[in-house]
Amino acid sequence: MHAATNVHPIARGALLLAVLAVAGTRADFFLTQRIDLGAHFGPLGNNPITLVADGTYAYIGGYSASADPREIGILRISLQDPNDAVALAGGTQTVNQFRYYGGLVVRNGVLYALCDRPAGTTASTNVRAIDVVTGALVETFDGDFGNGNGVVYEPAGMLVGATGGLAFDPGYQGGDYSGLSLLGYGSGRRVLLDADFGYTLFDTSDGMVVSDNDTMGCVVSDKTAWRDHVYDADGNVYLRRSNQVQKSVRSGPNAIGGYEHLTDELNNDGTPKPGCGDGRPVATRLAATVIGQNLELIPASSAGTDQDLIIFNDRWSTFSAGDRSFADAIKLITITGDLPSPPVQLLDANGQPLDPNSVVPDGVGLYDFYYVSSLDTLLILDFTSRALLVFSPVAPCPGDLDGDRDVDLADLALLLANYGMTQGATYEDGDLDGDGDVDLADLAALLAVYGTQC
């Protein structure tokens, strides 16, 4: 049965971008689906922790909190029909406590999945290549020694923890040296793997230096405590350095020409901490040892906005704390470190704040993000609640079942054709209240807005 929703699926939102593409338009995102992942986690891990999508499916990696070694896996779930969900066989592996999938990339029908030290040693750190259709490992992804059979261990010879996530580096301005990018805890360089075969392009001795070596005349706290990273189309890289957000500006195929610090810092007692980002509007607490500090780019082409945005979770609490609100943990800034202008909000389907009790209850502040450019859709993975939140920049149109932005006889006919469905009904079937059936309550809801245009 579908998770509760009261708007039609996200794909139709992309049809209306031209309407919203007006300079200065407020670029809010509206919740179109909340997909419950509880039936899949735990079998694939205690919680879902990392996320990527290809426009049809989302791929979600698991985390283990179990004291004894256990299996974790990767879920493939349809964004249109959450009942279409399956564990990918090639993603199953045994891990120790507090190990997890730390990064996912999907490209050309292949899902790449990073797991850092699943057995507690760097020798077990691996990147897997998985066919997204069959779920099988892609055996040609063999690495430097040709014996990985779809799993490359100690990628690029990394002898430190691969804690900075997995990203696709498009190369400098779309040129040479594209591939799978990894960051190691304590290493200032980006290593790079060939995406087809998994062999090393650059390792920790010759990869480009993404850490700021105090070139700005200020001391960078925990400058190689990498947690996540993502590239823009020109190859510039945005990084979570501990609980800070940094930009490394590309100057060549394997070179960085400068650094920008997009957030400032707080001491553990909440007082300002002198640092390279002093004066930035978003202060984030230093938390070098906390996992799950993620970020994602939302390009200016989305939601009719001319602002390039970064969304991230200001995660400074530990797993033992469950009192972080969604509104407090989720931050949005521009790629220059400023607050968006006009502001950007994450709202429910009716344009109201998200319900903190049922939709986004308090948790440990751990969220992952992915922007699906083909759908102009923002996905947010909620670790604590085991839920996938799907946001569209197009304001929903209640009662519009056929996606033509009005409520008329065609919509009424669709509802009546499915009247009496008792299980698994979707919005376009006429299930306006999201309870999985089409009944009098749904008919009343449609008649209440009959004749309206959006």
Structural features, described:
- This protein is mainly β.
- 6% of the residues lie in helices and 31% in strands.
- It is built from four helices and 29 strands.
- The strands form eight sheets. A five-stranded mixed β-sheet has the order 26-1-29-28-27, with no helix packed on it.
- Strand 5 and strand 6 (85-87) form a beta hairpin.
- The two termini are 28 Å apart.
What is the strand and helix layout of this fold?
Layout: H1 17-20, E1 29-36, E2 47-53, E3 57-63, E4 70-72, E5 74-78, E6 85-87, E7 93-95, E8 101-107, E9 110-115, E10 126-131, E11 151-153, E12 166-169, E13 179-183, E14 190-193, E15 200-202, E16 226-231, E17 237-241, E18 244-252, E19 255-261, E20 264-266, E21 272-273, E22 283-285, E23 295-298, E24 309-313, H2 326-329, E25 330-334, E26 346-347, E27 367-372, E28 377-382, E29 387-392, H3 409-417, H4 440-448
Parallel strand pairs: 1-26, 20-22
Antiparallel strand pairs: 1-29, 2-3, 3-5, 4-7, 5-6, 8-9, 9-10, 10-11, 12-13, 13-14, 14-15, 16-17, 17-18, 18-19, 20-21, 23-24, 24-25, 27-28, 28-29
Helix pairs in contact: 3-4
Task: Kindly list the characteristics that best describe this protein.
454 residues; 2 domains; five-stranded mixed beta sheet; mainly beta; Neuraminidase
- Which structural class fits the helix and strand makeup? mainly beta
Strands of the biggest beta sheet: in what spatial order? 26-1-29-28-27
Name of the CATH architecture of the largest domain = 6 Propeller
Round the mean pLDDT to the nearest integer and report it: 88
* Major beta sheet summary: 5 strands, mixed
Number of helical regions = 4
Q: What's the CATH class of the largest domain, please?
A: Mainly Beta
- Work out the count of structural domains: 2
Shape descriptor: globular
> What is the tally of beta strands?
29
Segments where pLDDT lies below 50 for 5+ residues?
Answer: 1-25
Q: Give the % helix.
A: under 10%
Give the termini separation. 28 Å
